[in-house]
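Format notes (please read before filing issues)

Several people have asked whether sequences and structure tokens are stored in separate files. They are not. Every record keeps both together, in the order shown below: the sequence lines, then the token lines. Line labels are part of the format and must not be stripped during preprocessing.
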Amino acid sequence: MGLGREEEVETRKPPVFKPGTKVRSTKYVKNDGTFAGRDVGEILVRKGEVGYVRDIGMFLQRYYIYAVEYVDSGIVVGMRGRELAAVDQPSEGARA
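Then the structure lines:
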């Protein structure tokens, strides 16, 4: 019985996004109960919604957590880098 796939420690490299970077959510984000004032299961961020990185933190000294402010909805949500894409850069599928 194996231990499963070991994930890379993100914090060994610099953060992918810097504060002020305009980003797009690549996933829907639902409230898991940690976002006050919203019901559990309520969608906080829709796929494709655009926001700006406000701050960068760490979780378990392994992962970067990006505090992204979604101006249209007026919320700030912590997201992983793999859940975000830079708006000013072409997506991987758009390369020629």
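For reference, the curators noted about this record: The chain has one domain: 15-88. The domain at 15-88 is CATH 2.30.30 (SH3 type barrels.).
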